[in-house]
UniProtKB/TrEMBL annotation:
InterPro entries: Wax_synthase, Wax_synthase_dom. It is a multi-pass membrane protein. This is Wax synthase domain-containing protein. One of its GO terms (cellular component) is membrane. Pathway: Secondary metabolite biosynthesis. Keywords: Membrane, Transferase, Transmembrane, Transmembrane helix. Coiled coil: none annotated. The chain crosses the membrane at residues 7-26, 32-53, 84-104, 283-307, 313-333. It is found in: Membrane. It comes from Zasmidium cellare ATCC 36951. GO terms for biological process: lipid metabolic process. PANTHER family: LONG-CHAIN-ALCOHOL O-FATTY-ACYLTRANSFERASE 3-RELATED (PTHR31595), OS04G0481900 PROTEIN (PTHR31595:SF57). One of its GO terms (molecular function) is O-acyltransferase activity.
Amino acid sequence: MNEYQISIIPSLLFVVVVSFPAAALGRHIIQFSILFASSIFLSVLGVYSLSLITTKASGPASRSKGSLKKIDQPKKWYDLSLEWKTRVFGIVAAAYVLALPYFAPGGPLAECVARAILFACAGKILDLTVARAHKPPKMMERGKAVPVTDRNRRQYVWLLLRECRYHSFDIATSEKERDRPASTIWTFGPGIIVPLLVYFVPCSETRFLLVLLIIHAGMETGHTILHPSSPHPLFWQPFAAGSISSFWRTHWQQDAASFLYSLAYAPAKEVVGRRFGKQAGRVAGVMAAFNLSGIWHGWAAACVSTAPWRTGAGMWALFVAHGVLCLVESAVWKDRQGGLVQRILVWAFAIWSTGMWIRDTEERVDVPWLKEYLV
């Protein structure tokens, strides 16, 4: 039985489970478990194929010094058929992951969280197996590339799938802008002040700040569980951001930076920049990245509303507006980023615009207890 035949098994199991006369809850748990496990299987298969390409790349280099020159000639060290297979596995796995909420739907709130996580997983898979198949990430150790061999291929696959920021690879997220010392006030202050604001001034704007805190705490906990040895946190004092650009680039969670760059920013910048110039390419790249991020969050938010298209489109528009604001503040303040006036203006806009979206969504929330709390 080959790899393609094996990939059909989850679909057959799904059909059996759907027709099995079990309780609704039990059937839902079994369905989702099988589907999620099969999606992990497909993801591993795609990244495993990526490791085979890497092994082909590093194999000759480990035999003799003279063979190092061959690595600079791509067609000499990777197999096009293997690269094609890796991309196919990646696309199938990503599509499968994105379809999970439709195959095994839960409550609106649970589905919202599942969609947000699964979209990020699909983006990670496409980033590794499609965008980087021509030049797979290199595993690093003490600043030097480690050749991928048959012995450490499992470690290569495991680390790529487990690490949120690829700390062990040459594509690791840059930490240059986080070098300055952390402030105690910005680290612990928001966790005390924001809940008090929500209690004494319960409105959409303060609830938005509370949501930021909850996302921060939840994702940082998940990152710690997945990658306890990582020397860098996923977030870095989000409320200390002096601009929209620095908020998304430096202070907010960075696990999506890799796939937003490879799937949106880089292709748009390349295509537009080649035709209209470097500056136009940068503008297109920024807007493409925020559009993809808007689609991600809009798709996740849509399922909690009785008017999903309106809610999803509103969330998408918020992210597009942030992309425009990044370009505007870059043009207005140029190299003088993070001043007091800019800090006040951009935070006021972010809080006001998100509060407006929350107020528009409150009446259409499809979660009774959440609607009662909001309204």
